[in-house]
Amino acid sequence: MEAKDDVYSPNGVLEDYLRTVESETVSSKASTSESEAQQNSKPTSRWGGFVQLLKIRSKTPLWRISRSLREDINTGLDPLVDTDLPQQKNFTLSELQTATNCFSQENLIGKGGYAEVYKGRLRDGQVVAIKRLTRGLPDERIGDFLCELGIMAHVNHPNTAKLIGYGVEGGMYLVLEFYPRGSLASLLHHGSKEKLNWSIRYKVALGTADGLLYLHEGCRRRIIHRDIKAANVLLTENFEPQICDFGLAKWLPEQWTHHTVSKFEGTFGYLAPEYLMHGIVDEKTDVYAFGVLLLELITGRRALDYSKQSLVIWAKPLLKKNNIKELVDPSLGDDYDSIQMNLVVLAAFLCIQQSSIQRPRMRQIVQLLKGSQGSLESVQKYQKPSFWKRYYVELFTTEGYNGTSDFNSLHRPKQPALEP
């Protein structure tokens, strides 16, 4: 009886969840080896100090765990295992208040349904972005906070946002590197004085693709971002893209083909058809959203304009006709590399296919965007071989072409229309 009371006490419930992850009911899709691996990892020894800190510092009761964290635990996913969070900087509320002038509205640089983001300056002079979770009821935030924190602590790539630390006193906070140029959305759509030329747009396309490929294949565990969009791609001083906001991200075990989620979350305009209709989440969910992002880079249009018109619906007829002139952002004029543009257009077309089976994986998309001739065989798997062979022959056999380094010396080849 005492053990049961302790389990449901405010001070005991989170440790119990972590201590008994290996004994929870694992989804029928999860293998025995996955469960055994979790047993051997002993997450409580690694996370005991952090959990204790969370209990002491947070004013939020710990007697409930959010549905998202409960789902991850019950399906054999532990966002806390093998995470070096104790090495991350723990900020006090006083430090965060000082950095942001008590979270002054003047320092508010972003706001959404899940969080507010403030610009701040630490005592050592470092400028940071401080994300304060505001999503849902207070007792829901702990699980969401731990999931996002656990994922970000695993992620380390030149094209993903960098986690500096966290705070759990008086709320839930993530402290991230600050990127001075803001988001891709702000530069593309919000009347920025600094227009993005084609070389920058192409760089953003390549870097974001590399970052997504890392999340899908390069991490210790597969990560599905679930909210790829222009607003979640930040730009460094040198316009290097940084994928940010892992609030909706999901782990995907190696032996699983997909998640089926019951809670609808995401951004309209970027949502894959299979997710909208059936709640299916896998790598192809991100591939579809990335295709929409490519269309934004090509056209300068929003995923959904102010009249709620879908960019995908508007662009598909032009893509099928390979009507580059009508697709390209008018602000670019003719000032773009024709081969690069054709590769990005082709990649976008493949990514936004209605059927997820017809969409390539990010590895093939990266090869395609870089102009790799080896991507021909991969791309042929998804569309009519005769059509793609004709397309690539004209694209890659242009006189003087020796790889991506020669893009600027190429003239526009005659292109066949993209077939549905």
Task: Give an overview of the whole structure.
This protein has 17 helices and twelve strands. The chain has 420 residues and is of the alpha+beta class. The protein has three domains: 2-86, no CATH class; 89-177, Phosphorylase Kinase, domain 1 (2-Layer Sandwich); 184-409, Transferase(Phosphotransferase), domain 1, CATH 1.10.510.10. The strands form four sheets. The chain has a six-stranded mixed β-sheet with strand order 1-5-6-4-3-2, with helices on both faces. A two-stranded antiparallel ribbon has the order 7-10. Strand 2 and strand 3 (115-121) form a beta hairpin.
Summarize the structure.
This protein is an alpha+beta fold. It folds into 3 domains: 85 residues, no CATH class; 89 residues, Phosphorylase Kinase, domain 1 (2-Layer Sandwich); 226 residues, Transferase(Phosphotransferase) domain 1 (Transferase(Phosphotransferase), domain 1, Orthogonal Bundle), CATH 1.10.510.
Helix content: 40-55%
Structural class: alpha+beta
Tell me the quaternary state. single chain
Q: Identify low-pLDDT runs.
A: 1-46, 60-70, 73-84, 398-417
CATH class division of the largest domain: Mainly Alpha
SSE order, one letter for each helix or strand: HHHHHEHEEEHEEHHEEEEEHEHHHHHHH
Secondary structure elements and pairings:
Layout: H1 2-7, H2 13-19, H3 32-41, H4 43-57, H5 67-74, E1 89-90, H6 93-100, E2 108-111, E3 115-121, E4 127-133, H7 138-154, E5 163-167, E6 173-177, H8 184-189, H9 198-218, E7 222-224, E8 233-235, E9 241-243, E10 250-252, E11 259-260, H10 273-278, E12 280-281, H11 283-299, H12 311-320, H13 324-327, H14 338-351, H15 362-369, H16 375-380, H17 385-396
Parallel strand pairs: 1-5
Antiparallel strand pairs: 2-3, 3-4, 4-6, 5-6, 7-10, 8-9, 11-12
Helix pairs in contact: 2-4, 5-7, 9-11, 9-15, 11-14
InterPro entries: Kinase-like_dom_sf (IPR011009), Prot_kinase_dom (IPR000719), Protein_kinase_ATP_BS (IPR017441), RBK1/2/STUNTED (IPR046958), Ser-Thr/Tyr_kinase_cat_dom (IPR001245), Ser/Thr_kinase_AS (IPR008271)
Main location: cytoplasm
Keywords: ATP-binding, Cytoplasm, Kinase, Nucleotide-binding, Phosphoprotein, Serine/threonine-protein kinase, Transferase
